[in-house]
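User: Sequence recovery, please. Input:
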């Protein structure tokens, strides 16, 4: 006998959406296709992510809670009982018994002939003879078979004349990494720079330019990742691409295209392919051989359409995608967490323009997204701008560029006090500017924990991603929030690309996955 340890709550959703099945567009039955459940969840969570629904966090909370409920067989059963007039607090005797009961109800409701009813009676008699141990053994074997099948399908070809790389296709910056015999390494460009700005510009004279070359062009396309997999009808307002978006000529054409010149338009996948081409070229120059295969990372909230668009971009760039993996999963690989203790891990990702927080559960070496959330209007750039205002207006240290401020922020992450122009600045001044933004990130974390019904004290480990997380203030705040120090051995700017490179090695050299 056991009671459900997690409540099935009736949220403040409207009555017609009180069913989690309706919220995730699923049939109201116990027997669910978990792949369809995950796909529908990702589609809905991306549409509710702050990238598209700024400030409306209730939607993502409802979706996270619905996903958690339907993913767990016991919670799913409880929810069905409530929908069918039962009580959520009823005692559940045994999971297998409950599952059989619900399945039999559904079959009984659909039986239309005497033969069908007789078949159900005979099936029920056979089930009486089964034991829970047999069912558990069968399930365990099927789980193992499925894992082995997935590994076989993703195993790279035996072709040894090309290398496979890991790519962090980021919103602000992108990186490429490689791993052969030792630790993974970031591949540098000809000037020794590790990252490539995720920026593309077009002109009739020079064609397309990428990265540092395009960064100074006022007409360049930035943050194209936000448009991946979207259609014209679903574009949110004030998205930052208004001057580039082309109006479809055909009312039945819902694809997003961007104006980049006289009578020329491109899709987000085509823009992303230019970034991937540049990273591919960098890798080939560094490694001295063709590069045709890659593991590419995507946000945990990317839906199927966004993932398909990412694969399309890779194909246009001449890359065969070995696997798309979630960014927090790549970070976990970089730390070797996939071989560590099972449990829930937290990933705090503060990029230049966005913040994402994800909870992953590790079970039998496989990571599963429990819940994710974020804020597209919150990033390291906001801290830079606030500190720039402090330096110029309050400290009156003269005109200062945002580039100088970023360098100054990095210096103050290493030293308590630095000389700047004709004066001094200390770390406390920086932290006063940054503290409101750090508190906003922790509020996002609290929401995600509530959605997943997990406590910070239950977390096995905390991983920091993004250059802004080097700030001592952020590391102290994260330590206090979780009650444990975060993992900081890997470079937070490079950790996602390094994890992708490790996965590329595993898929091509057959040494674990």
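Assistant: Recovered sequence (513 residues):
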């Amino acid at each position: 006998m056991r009671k459900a340890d997690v409540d099935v709550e009736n949220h403040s959703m409207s009555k017609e959406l009180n069913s989690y099945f309706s919220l995730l567009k699923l049939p109201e039955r116990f027997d669910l296709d978990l792949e369809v459940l995950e796909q529908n969840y990702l589609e809905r969570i991306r549409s509710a992510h702050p990238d598209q629904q700024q400030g409306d966090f209730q939607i993502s909370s409802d979706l996270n809670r619905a996903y958690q409920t339907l993913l767990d067989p016991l919670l799913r059963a409880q929810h069905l009982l409530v929908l069918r007039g039962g009580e959520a607090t009823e005692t559940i005797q045994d999971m297998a018994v409950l599952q059989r009961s619900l399945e039999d109800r559904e079959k009984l409701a659909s039986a239309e002939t005497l033969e069908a009813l007789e078949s159900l009676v005979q099936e029920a008699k056979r089930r009486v003879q089964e034991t829970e141990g047999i069912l558990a053994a069968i399930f365990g074997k099927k789980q193992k078979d499925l894992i082995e099948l997935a590994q076989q399908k993703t195993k790279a070809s035996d072709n040894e004349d090309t290398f496979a790389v890991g790519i962090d296709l980021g919103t602000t910056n992108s990186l490429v990494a490689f791993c052969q015999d030792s630790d993974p390494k970031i591949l540098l460009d000809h000037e020794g720079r590790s990252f490539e700005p995720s920026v593309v510009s077009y002109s009739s004279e020079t064609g397309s330019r990428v990265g540092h070359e395009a960064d100074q062009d006022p007409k360049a396309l930035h943050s194209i990742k936000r448009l991946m997999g979207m259609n014209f009808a679903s574009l949110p307002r004030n998205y930052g691409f208004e001057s580039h978006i082309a109006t479809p000529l055909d009312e039945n054409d819902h694809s997003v295209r961007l104006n980049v010149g006289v009578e020329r338009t491109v899709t987000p996948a085509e823009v992303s392919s230019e970034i991937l081409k540049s990273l591919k070229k960098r890798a080939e120059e560094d490694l001295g051989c063709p590069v045709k295969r890659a593991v590419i990372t995507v946000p945990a909230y990317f839906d199927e359409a966004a993932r398909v668009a990412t694969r399309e971009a890779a194909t246009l760039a001449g890359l065969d995608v070995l696997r798309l993996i979630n960014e927090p999963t790549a970070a976990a690989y970089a730390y070797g967490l996939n071989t560590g203790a099972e449990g829930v891990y937290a990933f705090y990702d503060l990029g230049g323009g966005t913040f994402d927080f994800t909870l992953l559960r590790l079970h039998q070496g496989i990571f599963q997204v429990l819940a994710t959330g974020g804020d597209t209007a919150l990033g390291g750039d906001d801290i830079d701008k606030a500190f720039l205002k402090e330096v110029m207006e309050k400290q009156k240290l003269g005109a200062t560029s945002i580039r100088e401020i970023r360098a100054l922020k990095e210096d103050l992450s290493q030293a308590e006090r630095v000389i700047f122009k004709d004066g001094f600045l200390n770390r406390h001044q920086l932290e006063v500017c940054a503290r409101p933004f750090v508190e906003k990130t922790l509020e996002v974390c609290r929401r995600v924990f509530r959605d997943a019904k997990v406590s910070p004290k239950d977390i096995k480990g905390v991983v920091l991603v993004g250059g802004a997380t080097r700030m001592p203030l952020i590391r102290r705040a994260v330590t206090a929030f979780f009650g444990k120090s975060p993992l900081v051995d890997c470079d937070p700017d490079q950790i996602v690309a390094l994890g992708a490179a490790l996965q590329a090695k595993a898929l091509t050299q057959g040494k674990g996955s």
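Confidence is low (pLDDT under 50) at residues 1-17, 88-93, 131-136, 153-160.
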